[in-house]
Specification:
The complex is a heterodimer of chains A (about 325) and B (about 260). Chain A is an alpha/beta fold and about 325 residues long. Chain A folds into 2 domains: about 220 residues, P-loop containing nucleotide triphosphate hydrolases (Rossmann fold), CATH 3.40.50; about 60 residues, Alpha-Beta Plaits (2-Layer Sandwich), CATH 3.30.70. Chain A has 12 helices and 14 strands. The chains are: A alpha/beta (about 325), B mainly alpha (about 260). The interface between A and B is medium-sized, with 35 and 29 residues.
Chain lengths: ~325, ~260
């Protein structure tokens, strides 16, 4: 079954005072099957957050078709809202309310009350290991606990699809791990999970991915499938004069390697045998070499010709 | 009940709970108006007589004005939290829940009006202690008048907060429109002998009718000259409340399919 299907989904933010209209989604076609963890991987500004906002009904759908769990988003927004759970990147807990109160008000929004509400709240507290924190004000929770309450909130009405925006942003490694345990166990219960991320590490954990760049889907598949599309290994060369290096390389070997964040990047089968050859062919020009199997980052570079994280961002 | 009433009541309850847990808001909403009242009221008492009948001091005259100011501040500022709350806060999950927009407005506006009453009651008691003694029966009338006023002010606050995306902008609009509205309502000075163009503004100002209604409940008839009749005041209050509520709902629905 298909959980989410988008056809030619476009979105343009209207012109501001100083800027013209910005087209952030330029025709997204996607299918997400039920029962999997599906990730939208993209750098900042790729449009994935806009996509999240549209699928979660925060932004109205203006262009294209979207159906969520078989329901048309444009004509039956209300029905879609009942079926999905949403976890935001920025906190959506009321800091002045306790964990139980947060869950209670959230349940009310979905028409749940009385004994049913009570039992669901307790169920969530047990499930997310929050029983002792039930009466603690949200503002006094740790980052990982807050995120767990956010997810518990999103699941109060037992949605079939959970949409999460950058779920592990701002969490430490331990909290990230326990978050992913939660995500995996939800999947085992049959909940489809759709998440956005800009973390390679997180993308690796998804069953399927769509890499998004500049408002377009540039690649889809499982992380392994994607990595296999790259022919061979990845060799990265550090050199004081990359342009010259590329020029000479082109003369010698025929193809033109990419320049990514100031380093020369070569895709080559049996790369380990090629490394000594390069160092010998460019006497004095090579100051560093790294060699590795393709990663998702390489998939991104191959698809877009650019680094996932730009040098200036890296410096920050 | 499950359609809109439950979410609306829940949102209303959340406003009240949050308010009492935030001590700075409780004190911040109460103390400045009292200081205003005592300092300005006492300061003007000696000199300010124009248009006021005998037997009413400026301190007393100023009382309904300050009461309205408390309601104005509480009701309008209760809506201000929406600005932040919508971008990063509780309101995000409300917006993606299957809740009609007018239930959100109803919860929020009722919340603001209730908070205003909670803030206003201690001040009414202070007024009683200071010698303003309405009949017991008219206390209910006061609460009703102020509820109407704060309901509509909370509606204005909601609309502003929804359309503006910064709290600085909110303060600017507040100072540009709401404070002048309050100044021209008879809160600070009697509305007699004003130039014609101001008379028009005064007549168009909904708060004029709030103040007039309060004055008629609090003070002996005839002490303050000609005031709009209580019926007119009630009609204006109902129309103003309905209009601001509708405006808030329309704003909240914007961008919804």
């Amino acid at each position: 079954m298909i959980a989410v299907k988008t056809e030619n989904l476009r979105h343009t933010y209207p012109a501001g005072r100083k800027t013209g209209p910005v087209e952030v989604l330029k025709g997204i076609d996607l299918e997400v099957e039920t029962g999997c963890v599906f990730g939208f991987l993209g750098p900042n500004g790729s449009g994935k957050t806009t996509l999240f906002k549209i699928l979660s009904t925060l932004l109205p759908l203006s262009n294209g078709d979207v159906s969520i769990l078989g329901t048309d988003l444009k004509s039956e927004q209300y029905k879609v809202r009942k079926k999905i759970g949403v976890v935001f990147q920025s906190p959506s807990l009321d800091r002045k309310l306790t964990v139980r109160e947060n869950l209670k008000h959230h349940g009310h929004l979905y028409g749940i009350r009385g004994g049913e509400l009570q039992s669901r709240i307790e169920e969530m507290l047990v499930k997310f290991n929050l029983v002792e924190k039930g009466n603690v004000l949200a503002e006094n929770l740790s980052g990982g606990q807050k995120r767990r309450v956010e997810i518990a909130k999103g699941l109060m009405h037992r949605p079939e699809l959970l949409i999460m925006d950058e779920p592990s942003t701002g969490l430490d490694l331990g909290a990230r791990r326990s978050l992913w345990n939660v995500i995996t166990s939800l999947k085992d219960e049959g909940v489809t999970i759709l998440l956005t991320t800009h973390l390679m590490m997180e993308a690796e954990l998804c069953d399927r991915l769509a890499i998004i760049d500049q408002g377009r889907v540039v690649s889809t598949g499982s992380p392994d499938e994607m990595k296999k599309t790259i022919g061979g290994d990845i060799i990265t060369i550090q050199t004081p004069d990359p342009d010259k290096f590329i020029e000479i390389y082109h003369e010698k070997f025929g193809d033109t390697p990419l320049l990514v964040n100031g380093r020369v990047r070569i895709e080559k089968e049996r790369g380990h045998e090629f490394v000594p050859q390069i160092v010998e062919s460019f006497p004095g020009m090579v100051t560093g070499v790294s060699y590795g199997k393709p990663t998702l980052e390489d998939v991104f570079i191959s698809a877009t010709g650019r680094a996932f994280v730009s040098e200036t961002e890296e410096a920050e | 009940m499950n359609g809109w009433l439950l979410p609306a009541i829940s949102l209303w309850q959340r406003e009240i709970t949050g308010f009492f847990r935030d001590r700075s808001r409780v004190i911040g909403g109460m103390v400045p108006p009292i200081i205003f009242w005592v300092f300005i009221g006492t300061g003007f008492s000696g000199t300010y007589r124009a248009g006021m009948g005998e037997g009413i001091s400026y301190l007393h005259y100023f009382f309904p004005g300050i009461l309205t100011l408390i309601f104005l501040f509480t009701a309008v500022f209760s809506a201000m939290s929406i600005i932040e709350d919508r971008r990063e806060g509780f309101m995000q999950s409300v917006l993606v829940a299957p809740v009609p927009r007018f239930a959100i407005v109803a919860g929020k506006v009722m919340g603001g009006a209730t908070l205003a009453i909670i803030q206003g009651i201690p001040f009414i008691i202070i007024g009683l202690a200071a010698g303003i003694r309405p009949e017991i029966g008219s206390l209910l009338k006061i609460v009703a008048i102020l509820f109407g006023a704060s309901f509509s002010l909370a509606g204005i606050g909601f609309t502003l907060a929804w359309r503006l995306n910064s709290s600085q902008g909110f303060h600017a609009v507040m100072n540009m429109f709401l404070i002048p509205m309050w100044l021209l309502s008879g809160a600070l000075f009697p509305l007699e002998g004003l130039p014609g163009w101001l008379d028009v503004l005064v007549a168009l100002n909904p708060l004029t009718y709030t103040i007039a209604a309060l004055q008629q409940v609090l003070f002996e008839p005839g002490l303050l000259g000609d005031l709009p009749s209580p019926t007119l005041c009630a009609v204006v209050s109902v129309i103003f409340s309905a209009a601001t509520f509708m405006l808030a709902v329309v704003s909240a629905r914007k961008g919804e399919s």
